[in-house]
Amino acid sequence: MERGKMAEAESLETAAEHERILREIESTDTACIGPTLRSVYDGEEHGRFMEKLETRIRNHDREIEKMCNFHYQGFVDSITELLKVRGEAQKLKNQVTDTNRKLQHEGKELVIAMEELKQCRLQQRNISATVDKLMLCLPVLEMYSKLRDQMKTKRHYPALKTLEHLEHTYLPQVSHYRFCKVMVDNIPKLREEIKDVSMSDLKDFLESIRKHSDKIGETAMKQAQQQRNLDNIVLQQPRIGSKRKSKKDAYTIFDTEIESTSPKSEQDSGILDVEDEEDDEEVPGAQDLVDFSPVYRCLHIYSVLGARETFENYYRKQRRKQARLVLQPPSNMHETLDGYRKYFNQIVGFFVVEDHILHTTQGLVNRAYIDELWEMALSKTIAALRTHSSYCSDPNLVLDLKNLIVLFADTLQVYGFPVNQLFDMLLEIRDQYSETLLKKWAGIFRNILDSDNYSPIPVTSEEMYKKVVGQFPFQDTELEKQPFPKKFPFSEFVPKVYNQIKEFIYACLKFSEDLHLSSTEVDDMIRKSTNLLLTRTLSNSLQNVIKRKNIGLTELVQIIINTTHLEKSCKYLEEFITNITNVLPETVHTTKLYGTTTFKDARHAAEEEIYTNLNQKIDQFLQLADYDWMTGDLGNKASDYLVDLIAFLRSTFAVFTHLPGKVAQTACMSACKHLATSLMQLLLEAEVRQLTLGALQQFNLDVRECEQFARSGPVPGFQEDTLQLAFIDLRQLLDLFIQWDWSTYLADYGQPSCKYLRVNPVTALTLLEKMKDTSRKNNMFAQFRKNERDKQKLIDTVAKQLRGLISSHHS
């Protein structure tokens, strides 16, 4: 029973579900019934649903049929009435057609007239509209015509303004016309044409400026030179009615003619002709000489076109390229000053133009850009100057170059460019200048020393005397009292060298001008350079003269006298430098002149050369010695060669009267010592294997001649027998052998009071051996065999004792 209830409940539920689905199908759009039908197919009561659906379809068909049957009679009645109306309508149509035909016939003329009126009214309206449109178009056409005229006359900036008005004011009012479209399409082309033309003018301007930079710089540097000269005059004279130039006047730097080739170049190149101005007339400024309008026009045009940055970049890039070209020096720049001048003119001209652009435009160039260019220019310029100035060997060219660099720096300093590095570089060039001066003065000193006669300067009148004293600071009351003719103690090279040293100091001073150095720095520079001149250049020149092979004793003596006077003049050179620099020598860190040392060294070298020369002369005379060491004859006079030697020495030392006393004494003592040493070597030389007592007697006569020369006092200043001491070794040796005083020698040997203190046992043994050999071979004593044997024994005994002394001395 329960199962039957459950089946009945399920059947009711299924029927309700099918009813719901049918209602949903009836109320839902056909495109959306897919899910609904799917739920039917998913269920298990598909057949029952189809039955239910068929039943519902039949119910709807019966309802439709009932409705059609209900309205059919009304439809029939309507068709009947419509057939009646069709006949009446046909009649009305005929009447209307007839009436229309009559009306058309009657109104044909009126229609023609109305048509004519219509055409007239249409034409009138068209004319009026045309006039109105033409009134709108005429200003556009006029502006376009004006634009073309401006383009034709190269008034590009006004043309650009006209183009702006045309585009934004006039063309929008008539934009629907085809000719306006053509204009609108042409506007970008016109803008590009204006840009191209203005850029072409700018390129012409830049090219012309590059070509004429040296002219611009030349006039700028000339004006700077004039201003500096004027400032110097103002400093030297009372400043009456003088006017200082303002910063604005810094641009008025040009005062000479810059040529142009044609009227077109005057208009377009940027360079204007200016006639030469009188010195008292106002000098034209940069804006007067250079037509900057192409730059300004192009800048305005690009600014209006919104391409200012493009223009700025292009301008700066081109100017940088030009700067690199300007800063590239010609390879032969160092050969002439004009090469340097042209190089500087181009650099100055470049930066004068840039400075003017900086101050007359807003942002085309800025200070950072200028500073960057200047830093590049400064480094390249300094490098070029270092390289090319190093090739210069002419001090005058170096000095002119220095003046040109100073003018170059002063000119650019007027425009606010820092130039300290240029002045620092000038200090480097100063050292090179000093070197070139030293080379030049080396030649001058060489010529002076080579052309000098090394004789005291003779003067025959007061005028000649004053002339020499005016050239060289010399004071000698004794010489002043002497009557004319008289002689100065020094030769001509003394005043010449002294004056050339002063000229060198003047040359050093010239370089220090306008370098903005303090007096102390100038003084220090001059003193250091002068010291180099004295200690290196002049010293080398003097040494070369002293060391010449053909130099004579007279010349050497005169050199000593000359250097003595030059040494005394050093204090006057100190005073000379002090006077021109106004720096007292007592100032702290003041460099002292080393002239005294230089002349002392030269004098000492000359003295040594005198000593060497004398010794060489003595050696030459000694080479003439021709002793017969085996002679048995006793001579009675000195050898001829020695007599000539003594005569030479007497005449030589007579020339030494003007030398300082110690120099003459040292030369005399040196000559005597060398003579004594040479004679000793001559006596003891290995080639003389044997000698006789007679030869020793002749040698003794020669030594006595030397001693007589020493006693005669060839040079004053020696005390008693000081000069004779040079021959004391020879004298004691000869006395020992001639007197045969061996007992005294051997007994007193080694005692301070020994008579033969200067005789060396080795020397005595050497000479004794030579006499021993002679005694053995001498047949003159053959008849006195016993005496000969006794003497030989004595010689052997003495020789043995001498050997004992020598061995004991060594031990």
UniProtKB/TrEMBL annotation:
GO cellular component: exocyst; plasma membrane
Entry annotated with the keyword Transmembrane: no
Example of a GO biological process term: vesicle tethering involved in exocytosis
Functional description taken from the UniProt entry: Component of the exocyst complex involved in the docking of exocytic vesicles with fusion sites on the plasma membrane.
Name assigned to this protein: Exocyst complex component
Alphabetical list of Pfam families matching this protein: EXOC6_Sec15_N, Sec15_C
Provenance organism: Ursus maritimus
InterPro entries, A to Z: EXOC6/Sec15, EXOC6/Sec15_C, EXOC6/Sec15_C_dom1, EXOC6_Sec15_N, EXOC6PINT-1/Sec15/Tip20_C_dom2
Region entry Disordered, spans: 257-280
Coiled-coil regions listed: 82-109
Domain Exocyst complex component EXOC6/Sec15 N-terminal: 52-221
Domain (Exocyst complex subunit EXOC6/Sec15 C-terminal): residue spans on this chain: 421-770
Family: Belongs to the SEC15 family.
Keywords: Coiled coil, Exocytosis, Transport
